[in-house]
């Protein structure tokens, strides 16, 4: 990674609007924006070549597998994947081994992220001890530690006990932190392998009904209402979730929701081959869910895109569908899938992409230095997007240590030309800068 000195990014269009300008960055802060800026010869330059300039992306939902499964992802490899995907901040979920349910783990994740330095790694703390759903974790200790944990989640598992969830929301309110719920009523998903629909029936796979998600979404909306606090819904996957979140927002309930790129694009039709790469929680659903999620993201009902980047070892993904681990990679392909499903369909312009990939996630979780406007005086956390380019995904070329991308061999629109974290170039033309 280059030192955070001075940087000149030439020939870029902020938010894809207007004529190309140059951006001068000094000591991590944008100091000048205008056509044909001059800078001393020693200043590092990035040629934007008429690219779109966006605020650096913020991922509220990433699984880095450190500590515990460093064979599938480390904080370093996941940070590289994030930088290449245009991210300047990621939230690393708590389902590590050991679980991030105490400040020793969360502070270690945070410090390792700083040492790697490619992206701001914010650890997510567990809501319950060991993700067991029995006893609240020491959220206060984690929030007060070096990592200043801002978000808590048992993701991978649902906090299904309603009384415990109520207490968690009350505790979170006092700490001014966010609870993010993996909305899954486990008594409705016993043995479930696929979306409960015609495809699962035909393939003989036990179904995961939409109601398993939606019943928790509405329950948690009501609990947040009563607690007078906010709640965030991870990986919304159904048309009904969009309707329920819209209803809850209309009631003045402080609820937010994210959608993954794969739930915007892919359906359970993918399961016909029984390829475990398509196994994910919540499952890929039907086209009407994709379309409702896209509309919800466009109209602000769904607040943001989060990757749910979930690396798994080859041996955990090549076996029989029923025993394969759920989850798919997402960091390096997210922007392309958002362009394919939201920009190329006319649902979002580049301002809208900045909102759902950067501004809203930063606001929801309370980051004050990310998701900022591209303006003089603002921190230089930026992503340079070549909107005209396309690329073919080669699993072996990904920076992630895992290979479980559902987009292998697909040609996708848009590439990340460069990512800039506080004025330092972290990724440039497909390579990370260390
Ligand atoms: N999404 C997944 O299918 N898997 C995630 C857990 C989760 O996000 O629920 C994982 O940690 O592998
Ligand atoms: Zn989850
Ligand atoms: Zn997850």
Automatic annotation (TrEMBL):
Residues the entry annotates as binding substrate: 63-65, 95, 281, 312, 326-327
Sequence positions that bind Zn(2+) 1:
61, 63, 155, 308
What's its catalytic activity? (S)-dihydroorotate + H2O = N-carbamoyl-L-aspartate + H(+)
Keyword Hydrolase present in the record's keywords: the answer is: yes
A molecular function annotated in GO for this UniProt entry is: dihydroorotase activity
Its EC number is 3.5.2.3
Q: Name one GO biological process term.
A: purine nucleobase catabolic process
The prosthetic group or cofactor this protein requires is: Zn(2+)
Q: Which CDD domains match?
A: DHOase_IIa (cd01317)
Organism's domain of life? Bacteria
Dihydroorotase catalytic domain: residues covered: 52-238
Catalytic center residues: 308
Pathway-wise, it operates in:
Pyrimidine metabolism; UMP biosynthesis via de novo pathway; (S)-dihydroorotate from bicarbonate: step 3/3
Which residues are listed for Zn(2+) 2 binding in this entry?
A: 155, 182, 235
Chain's role: Catalyzes the reversible cyclization of carbamoyl aspartate to dihydroorotate.
Q: What is this protein called?
A: Dihydroorotase
User: What is the originating organism of this protein?
Assistant: Gordonia amarae NBRC 15530
| Lineage of the organism | Bacteria, Bacillati, Actinomycetota, Actinomycetes, Mycobacteriales
């Amino acid at each position: 990674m280059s030192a955070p000195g001075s940087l000149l990014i030439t020939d870029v269009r902020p938010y894809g609007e207007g004529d190309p300008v140059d951006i001068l960055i000094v000591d991590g802060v944008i100091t000048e924006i205008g056509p044909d800026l001059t800078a001393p010869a020693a200043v590092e330059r990035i040629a934007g070549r008429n690219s779109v300039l966006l605020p650096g992306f913020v991922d509220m939902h990433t699984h880095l597998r450190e500590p515990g499964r460093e064979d599938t992802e480390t904080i370093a490899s996941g940070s590289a994947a994030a930088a290449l995907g245009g991210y300047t901040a990621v939230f690393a979920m708590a389902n590590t081994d050991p679980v991030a349910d105490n400040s020793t783990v969360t502070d270690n994740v945070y410090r390792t992220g700083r040492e790697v330095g490619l992206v701001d790694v914010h650890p997510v703390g567990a809501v319950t001890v060991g993700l067991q759903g029995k006893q609240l974790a020491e959220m206060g200790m984690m929030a007060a530690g070096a990592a200043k944990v801002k978000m808590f989640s048992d993701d991978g598992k649902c906090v299904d006990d309603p009384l415990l969830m109520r207490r968690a929301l009350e505790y979170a309110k006092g700490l001014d932190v966010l609870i993010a719920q993996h909305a899954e009523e486990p008594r409705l998903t016993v043995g479930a392998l696929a979306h409960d629909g015609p495809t699962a029936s035909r393939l003989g796979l036990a179904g995961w009904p939409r109601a398993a998600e939606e019943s928790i979404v509405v329950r948690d909306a009501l609990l947040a209402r009563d607690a007078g606090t906010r709640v965030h819904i991870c990986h919304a996957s159904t048309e009904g979730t969009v309707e329920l979140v819209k209803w809850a927002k209309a009631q003045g309930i402080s609820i937010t929701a994210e959608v993954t790129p794969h739930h915007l694009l892919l359906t359970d039709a993918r399961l016909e081959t029984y390829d475990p790469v398509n196994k994910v929680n919540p499952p890929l659903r039907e086209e009407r869910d994709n379309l409702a999620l896209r509309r919800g993201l466009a109209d602000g009902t769904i607040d943001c895109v989060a990757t749910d980047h979930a690396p798994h070892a080859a041996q955990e993904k090549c076996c029989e569908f029923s025993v394969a681990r759920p989850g798919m990679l997402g960091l390096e392909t997210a922007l392309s899938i958002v362009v394919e499903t939201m920009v190329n369909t006319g649902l979002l312009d580049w301002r809208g992409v900045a909102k759902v990939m950067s501004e809203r996630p930063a606001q929801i979780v309370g980051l004050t230095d990310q998701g900022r406007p591209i303006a003089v005086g603002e921190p230089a956390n930026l992503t340079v997007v070549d909107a005209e380019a396309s690329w073919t995904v080669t699993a072996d070329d990904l920076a992630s240590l895992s290979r479980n991308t559902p987009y292998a061999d697909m040609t996708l629109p848009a590439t990340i030309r460069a990512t800039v974290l506080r004025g330092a170039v972290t990724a440039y033309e497909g390579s990370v800068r260390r």
